[in-house]
């Protein structure tokens, strides 16, 4: 076992050369003065020079780099992006505002305030590191598609999420990424009708527990329920064996005496799910500190601590699945029906290394599980606020599929309104609201609205937000902040989205577009069809749901109408869940 140094110590060792260079240079300079020029510098001045050299050197280096960058920009007929206003040195006030915002504010508030001053692209330099935020479709297109080869997730992203994910398709770059993408892609492109069997099994489980709980008189945290549904579905697809998180039961409202029980608290699936969620929160909060995150987890890696809990749960499941695979191979029995069904079956064709397989499956689980649960959560939240949309969606379900039958692949394709509801939810509540790339070489972003092209230096972090882009009135029309699925069907579609497809990229775009897009639409549609066959209305359980802070009511945009607190780690979620009640459908309801 290798000895693990605390993260803070590792960072100090890494920074030491850069830290020591200035005082060492001062020392040499003073010696030269003394020996060659015979000038003796007074002690107090020597002392001052040593002390000041440490903070001054990075500042001078930043000023110098800025100078070089603006010259490079000018040489290409471009300019540098505007600098976000910072009153304190090293952008510390911006950092503090962002930290405060992540605690009680509305998502993206600080960035939106900056955008009002600087436009939709600006450099929020924090701790002396450039960070060029953008929510401009033309630039997002450059990052993801037209200049794909000049951007990567970057060594910093990898460093930030390595203790969460190891290395896999989701967090690697370059040839490593190509290898992982090639390895996982065939798994998704196959037409897997049997997928629906897995959806059916877990949807049935979830919905019947949901019904039962409502009959007992309690509301249900819809977010928790669909997270269990997507976790069980994902693990069954990936490993061929689900983690039975629905088997732990649905939680009761926190105010209920039944909320705390030894059974639920000690249930391995709950322990796993909670540790996994905390690991994601911890990993994503590192993003704020850039390469300095180790200072904030000085003595121990908070993500790894939680992932160790997750591994205790996942490793035996993986080991089992691998063993089964080996036994089958040795006995020569070809399990035709199952061959190639799970990701695991697929991966063992490429490698037997359990760590590679574990990392890859976790990469895909993280990409697919919380995102789809988030989509379903925000759909139900929106349906609870827009009963007219629910009625129309339900009508479509009953017309196309009827009141009890399982939906087929063809049904899904014909449910246009379902797609529009999903898209409209993905627009206002994209499960991946913020993302980041790092430039691997200097590039120029094209001119937008007659402005000058922008120069992006090499090794620069460029965080981009589809969340903020999806809500821009200049891109979507004056009603951009309203939830209205018809905008994906009526003339607004041709007016805004068709001519400018990069204004809507919930699944990203370009060579790294989400591998599971179709899978996600199917999974979400399947669940919603089954749900709306069983229930006819939905309302937020305001007696249980914790409302947002009172000052939100005075906020701009959707902040004022929000009934739940939205947060984001790698993905978007509702901070205190989404507690709902639903009315059971009339069983005699005839199919229209
Ligand atoms: C509503 C649901 C989903 C949304 C909004 C979503 C969104 C995204 C986004 C934005 C990315 C790009 C991440 C990046 O490169 O920075 C991505 C990548 C990915 N997604 Fe999804 N996703 C969803 C569901 C799924 C599902 C269900 C799966 C698999 C079962 C999946 C598998 C993947 C994989 C493997 C990648 C990495 C692709 C690569 O880097 O080459 N996603 N997804
Ligand atoms: C694994 O490889 C074997 C032989 O090359 C092939 O028959 C099988 O279909 C592959 N399985 C998967 C899941 O790709
Ligand atoms: C929903 O968005 C996807 C792109 O993500 C698009 O292909 C599809 O046509 C849209 N469907 C509807 C009904 O808006």
UniProtKB/TrEMBL annotation:
<keyword id="KW-0408">Iron</keyword>
<dbReference type="GO" id="GO:0020037">
    <property type="term" value="F:heme binding"/>
</dbReference>
<dbReference type="InterPro" id="IPR001128">
    <property type="entry name" value="Cyt_P450"/>
</dbReference>
<dbReference type="InterPro" id="IPR047146">
    <property type="entry name" value="Cyt_P450_E_CYP52_fungi"/>
</dbReference>
<keyword id="KW-0503">Monooxygenase</keyword>
<keyword id="KW-0479">Metal-binding</keyword>
<dbReference type="GO" id="GO:0005506">
    <property type="term" value="F:iron ion binding"/>
</dbReference>
<keyword id="KW-0560">Oxidoreductase</keyword>
<dbReference type="GO" id="GO:0016705">
    <property type="term" value="F:oxidoreductase activity, acting on paired donors, with incorporation or reduction of molecular oxygen"/>
</dbReference>
<keyword id="KW-0349">Heme</keyword>
<dbReference type="InterPro" id="IPR017972">
    <property type="entry name" value="Cyt_P450_CS"/>
</dbReference>
<comment type="similarity">
    <text>Belongs to the cytochrome P450 family.</text>
</comment>
<dbReference type="InterPro" id="IPR036396">
    <property type="entry name" value="Cyt_P450_sf"/>
</dbReference>
<dbReference type="GO" id="GO:0004497">
    <property type="term" value="F:monooxygenase activity"/>
</dbReference>
<protein>
    <recommendedName>
        <fullName>Cytochrome P450 monooxygenase pc-3</fullName>
    </recommendedName>
</protein>
<dbReference type="Pfam" id="PF00067">
    <property type="entry name" value="p450"/>
</dbReference>
<dbReference type="InterPro" id="IPR002401">
    <property type="entry name" value="Cyt_P450_E_grp-I"/>
</dbReference>
<feature type="binding site" description="axial binding residue">
    <location>
        <position position="514"/>
    </location>
    <ligand>
        <name>heme</name>
    </ligand>
</feature>
């Amino acid at each position: 076992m290798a000895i693990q140094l605390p993260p803070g110590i590792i960072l100090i060792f890494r920074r030491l050369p850069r830290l020591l260079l200035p005082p060492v240079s001062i020392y040499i300079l003073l010696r030269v003065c003394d020996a060659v020029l015979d000038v003796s510098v007074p002690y107090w001045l020597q002392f001052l020079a040593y002390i000041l050299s440490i903070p001054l050197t990075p500042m001078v280096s930043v000023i110098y780099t800025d100078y070089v960058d603006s010259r490079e920009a000018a040489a290409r007929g471009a300019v540098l992006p505007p600098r976000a206003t910072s009153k304190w040195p090293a952008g510390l006030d911006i950092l503090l505002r962002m930290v405060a915002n992540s605690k009680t504010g509305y998502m993206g508030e600080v960035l939106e305030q900056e955008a009002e001053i600087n436009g939709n692209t600006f450099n929020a330099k924090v701790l002396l590191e450039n960070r060029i935020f953008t929510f401009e479709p033309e630039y997002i297109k450059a990052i993801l598609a037209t200049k794909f080869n000049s951007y990567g997730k970057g060594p910093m992203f990898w460093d930030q999420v390595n203790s969460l994910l190891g290395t896999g398709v989701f967090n690697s770059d370059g040839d490593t990424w190509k290898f992982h993408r090639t390895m996982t892609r065939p798994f998704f492109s196959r037409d897997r009708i049997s997928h629906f069997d897995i959806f059916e099994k877990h949807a049935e489980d979830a919905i019947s527990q949901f019904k039962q709980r409502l009959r007992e008189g309690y509301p249900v945290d819809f977010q928790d329920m669909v997270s269990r549904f997507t976790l069980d579905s994902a693990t069954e697809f990936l490993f061929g064996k689900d983690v039975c998180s629905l088997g732990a039961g649905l939680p009761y409202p926190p105010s209920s005496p039944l909320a705390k029980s030894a059974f639920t608290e000690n249930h391995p699936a709950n322990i796993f799910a909670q540790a996994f969620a905390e690991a994601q929160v911890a990993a994503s909060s590192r993003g704020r500190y850039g390469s300095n995150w180790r200072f904030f987890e000085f003595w121990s890696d908070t993500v790894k601590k939680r992932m160790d809990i997750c591994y205790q749960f996942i490793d035996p499941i993986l080991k089992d699945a691998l063993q089964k695979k080996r036994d089958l191979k040795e006995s020569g029995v070809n399990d035709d029906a199952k061959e190639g069904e799970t990701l695991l079956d697929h991966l063992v064709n490429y490698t037997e290394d359990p760590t590679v397989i574990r990392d890859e499956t976790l990469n895909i689980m993280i990409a697919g599980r919380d995102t789809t649960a988030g989509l379903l959560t925000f759909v139900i939240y929106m349906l609870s606020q827009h009963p007219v949309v629910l009625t129309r969606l339900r009508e479509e379900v009953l017309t196309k599929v009827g009141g009890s039958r399982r939906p087929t692949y063809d049904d899904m394709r014909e449910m246009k309104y379902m797609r529009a509801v999903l898209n409209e939810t993905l627009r206002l509540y994209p499960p991946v609201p913020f993302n980041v790339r790092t430039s691997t070489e200097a590039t120029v972003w094209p001119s937008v609205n007659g402005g000058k092209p922008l120069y992006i230096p090499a090794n620069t972090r460029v965080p981009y937000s589809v969340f903020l882009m999806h809500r821009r009135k200049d891109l979507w029309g004056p009603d951009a902040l309203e939830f209205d699925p018809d905008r994906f069907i009526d003339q607004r579609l041709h007016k805004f989205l068709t001519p400018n497809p990069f204004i809507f990229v919930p699944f990203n775009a370009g060579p790294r577009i989400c591998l599971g897009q179709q899978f996600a639409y199917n999974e979400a549609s399947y669940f919603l069809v089954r749900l709306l066959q069983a229930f006819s209305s939905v309302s937020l359980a305001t007696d249980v749901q914790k409302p947002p802070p009172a000052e939100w009511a005075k906020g701009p945009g959707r902040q004022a109408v929000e009934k739940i607190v939205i947060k984001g780690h790698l993905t978007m979620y509702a901070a205190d869940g989404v507690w709902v009640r639903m009315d059971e459908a009339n069983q005699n309801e005839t199919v229209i």
